[in-house]
Prior knowledge:
The complex is a heterodimer of chains A (150) and B (319). By secondary structure, chain A is mainly β.
Amino acid sequence: MAKTLVPESISDDALGNFVVGGSVVGYTIKVGVTRYRSMPLSCIEEFELMVDGKKIDPLDIMFCLNGKRFMISQLKDMYTEYWNINAKAELAVLKAGGLGAGEHEINLRLIMRVPYVYANDTYDIKRSEAEHFAFAKEDASCAARVALRS
Amino acid sequence: MNNRIRLGVRLFSFRNMYSLEDSLRKIAAMGVDGFDITASQTIPGYPWPSEEYIEEFISMYKKHGLQLISYDGNIDVGIRSDRQLTDDERYSYALNDIMYAKKFGAKISRIQWHLNAKVLERLASRAEMFGIKAGIEIHSPLRPKSPVIQEYVEMLERLKSPYIGLIPDFGAFALKPHKGMLNVALAKGMGRQMLDYLVQAISGGVSVSQAKSEMRKMGATEKDFDTMSELYHSGFGTPDLQGLKAILPYCIHFHGKFYEFDENGNDGTIPIEDLLPMIRDYGFDGYIASEYEGHFSSDADPAEMVGRQLKLYRKTIGA
């Protein structure tokens, strides 16, 4: 079976509390880029977070990277923001009281556009034709069972 | 004829499995003095890495007695969700990579073919100003004779600038699919019969649309079409050696792509017995950088694989 060949994108210390003004208002999940190279955020075509089997409303998620906080709906326009190979994005998820200590199941469905590979794989093309091609997409999803320590 | 080929290693081969320091140590131990980087894979902060990082990176490779041959950028023409990049935008992304190639101490900047010939022509004087050779990679499924590559060749013939050229990847000359890829296709659920058909179709130059309609008749699933796409992208069949011979005057660098060795320890997929002597006898004065890409289907240690392949190269060209 094909291997994803990326460093562990959700590590054991991925979960934390989302604290604002001393109150726990949710939880945070650190995620490393799930492809072999740094990816522009604009290449994220589908983004769906499930925690403990429950789909999370994108309006409850802030995508934090490079010192900025993005709405999920903004990602498609962020073509100057790179999710670097050595950087972790932090998903800050609103949930009254937080997630609670113990193990949790994280499933992040990510479909990424490969911005330098056309979907029509053929060598017999002219430049004028290439301009009309769609790009290849890659399933860059990741999942893990992670414990929240406190 | 005298051999002027020098051998190097593409860091891509290691897929970040070792630390940068360990990677460079392993490369130096292979008896080569040069390496390439795929900047988006290796360099934090690509496409705008920090000056501090650049300084650190340069002192690290110098410490190991290595030089950076090529700084490889990406032409992400699909970076925007609403449209492809314009010619001016492609120009600026490529120019940025050429500038960073210079900052990193590289000699060459690899540019992906989506750039297009008109834009490369416009970049020639800037590449000259930076003292960097900018080369378009000929990567499978493209071949030297592909129309998009021939557009570059016509321009290069006309312009005759030593600062722009071509970088063929040996993967563009594969005779057949490597065993690992076939195993992956089967593991993804493609039936043996459909796989055999596809291998024949791709080798025989059957178009994607024709292969698709044939596969539909065979009851192909969505997953089968994904596998088909991967196989077409890898490209194989009768290698375009005549095409390569014709473009040798414009080649500034080579990627020595390989996937696996056959039971006799030879590269059964890439015709290196044809490629290497042709390049040597032309008098090519530059590097062939070894690139292992068998990771998806093998647990072999990449550094060991690269070391074995360099030995095979040395044997083949008599160096």
